[in-house]
Every structure is written in structure tokens, then in C-alpha cells.
Amino acid sequence: MPDTATFPGPGASNAAWRAFLHGLPGVDAVGLQERAARLGTRSIKESAKGFAIDTAISMIDLTTLEGADTPGRVRALCAKAAGPEPTDRSVPRAAAVCVYPDLVGTAVEALRGTGVAVASVATAFPSGRAPLEAKLVDTRAAVAAGAAEIDMVIDRGAFLAGDYLAVFEEIAAIREACGDAHLKVILETGELVTYDNIRRACWLAMLAGADFVKTSTGKVAVNATPANTLLLLLAVRDFLAATGRQVGVKAAGGIRTSKDAVKYLVLVNETVGPAWLTPRWFRLGASSLLNDLLMQRHKLRTGSYSGPDYVTVD
Ligand SMILES: O=C[C@H](O)COP(=O)(O)O
User: What does the record give as the reaction this protein catalyses (predicted)?
Assistant: First the structure.
């Protein structure tokens, strides 16, 4: 675990950042994948399944990030996030609804008084390719419209070119533009090529002020995986030990089944433990997971799957 004495201080040069990030311990890729796979096969007791499903529902950032999104679609999603099963009030609400910045106002209106947060992607999502000034405008607009959480994506081009200082400064500037809103930093792990790079990007984001580190946009070939999520969990654990500051983790992209969601909860429980096992510190970013969780919940309670009319279309 890195010592705080080795952290680059304010005004550190790119060379200092490079020395710090490349001085982090290398990732044992085979060991990481084996550990993630082993934890993924761990079964949970039948009695704990209901709790796990409800916990997963409460951790969802219910997401729609399509060019064809409409206010009507966002309102329907908000209704679903606030009351996933209208005839059963025991179903927990989702943690947040995640939308593009121009739809934040619609979501804020629809979710008022429900306790569900509005999250918005910003900073030229999903590519991250725009001038910093445009990214700041994007972020401020989303916050001004009422977003309580901003999901920013890092500039992978700068990171892969070794321009760590630029990535650090950009995250720090967006963190400042967020004001009271929480900042989730999307590393886009599927484009960072190596596990060592994922660990470096994660430390860079945490040191720049990220409230959450998030695996993926959901828009590339490889999104959340148990291995890259495990790597983030180990980093936030080490960061807490080194600095006393807790950072959340969001696994996002490609998580569609209850089985997968429960695997992520087992990963959290077995690595960083109950301190992260709440929506405050762990999220599942997903556009089409909720229905499967609702169907499994119904099966657990009644012994049979519901008919096709039981859940609304995602
Ligand atoms: O942040 C959430 C992701 O964009 C959702 O990805 P997904 O559509 O694969 O569930």
C-alpha cells in the first residue's frame, strides 16, 4: 500500500505523477482473475438471497443513455426507480436515475420527494473528448439543473499517452465544478489495456478528489467485470487505510442478471466488507438489470416466476 509521504503534492509535475503511479505495486493479473472467479462461484444461503436481491435493487443507478432518450422515457424510468413494483411497497427504491445532462430537469421533477437521486453523465460522455472548458460547462449545467451526482469519464487518450497531470487536473477541476454534488469518475477500464493502468487511473482519480470510482460507460466492448471491479475495491480499501477517506465503487455496464448482481455483492462483502455494502458506497450502473431482480424476488416469495405482464419493459 502506498504511503501518504509518497503522494505527489500540490503542483507536482507530470514526472512526479509518473514516478508515483509507476511505483505502485504491479497487479498479479492471474491472481486477480482467479480470486474474482473464485469469489464469483461462492454461493449464498437461500435465506440470504432475498436480502441480497433487495440490496442490489437499492444500489442500482437505473440508467438510460441513448441518443433517442425522450422526456417520456425518462419519466417512466423515474417512476420505476421510485417504485419498482407498484403493487408491492416492500420493494426498495433504486439509488439513482442516470441520464444525459439535458434530461436532468425532467428527472429532478419526476423524482422530487422520492429519495431517488438524479445522476448525470458529463464531460463529453462517453468519449471524454472535448476541451476542458466544454466539460466544465456540461458539468455546471447538470448540477444547476439539480443533479446530485455527476458521472465523469476520464480522458483515456491523455492517460494512455502518459499525460497523468492533465488527467489529474481535469478531474480536480470537475470535482470543484460539482460543488455539493458527488463525483463518480469513470475509468473506462475496458480501454486502459492493463490491470496496472487500471490501478494507476484509480489512484489518480481518488487523489484528485473522486467520491466514487466507476468501471465503465457501458458503451465499449468490455465493461464491468468481476476482476476490474475487484481491483477497484482493493484500491479504495488501501486508499481508506492510507488517507482515512472512504471512496465508493460503481460497477457499470453489461450487468443484466440477478446472478451477476449477487456476484458483485459477494465481491464487496468478501474484500472490503459491510462498510461498502450500502448504496452510499457501492452502486450497480445498469439499464436492464432491475427486471430480472424483480422476477427473482417474485420467484423467491411465491415459488414461481411471474407472467410476462408482471414487470414493465426496461
Ligand atoms: O452506467 C451505466 C451503464 O451505462 C449501463 O450500461 P448497460 O446498458 O450495459 O446496463
Answer: 2-deoxy-D-ribose 5-phosphate = D-glyceraldehyde 3-phosphate + acetaldehyde
Distance from the CA of 193 to the center of ligand 1, in angstroms?
20
Name the residue with the closest Cα to ligand 1, atom 6. Answer: 253
Q: Is the pLDDT of residue 230 over 60?
A: yes
Is 250 a catalytic site residue?
Answer: yes
Residue 82, SS3 per DSSP? helix
pTM: 0.95
ipTM above 0.90, yes or no: yes
Question: Which member of 135, 184, 214, 263 is catalytic?
Answer: 214
Number of other residues whose CB lies within 10 A of the CB of residue 259: 10
Confidence band of 41 (pLDDT split at 50, 70, 90): confident
C-alpha cell at 183: 463525483
Instruction: Name the CATH superfamily housing domain 29-302.
Output: Aldolase class I (3.20.20.70)
pLDDT of 5: 82
54 catalytically annotated? no
Q: Which residues of 105-116 are buried (b: 16+ CB within 10 A; e: fewer)?
A: bbbbebbeeeeb
Expressed in angstroms and rounded, the spacing between residue 14 Cα and the centre of ligand 1 is 33
Mark whether 151 is an active-site residue. yes
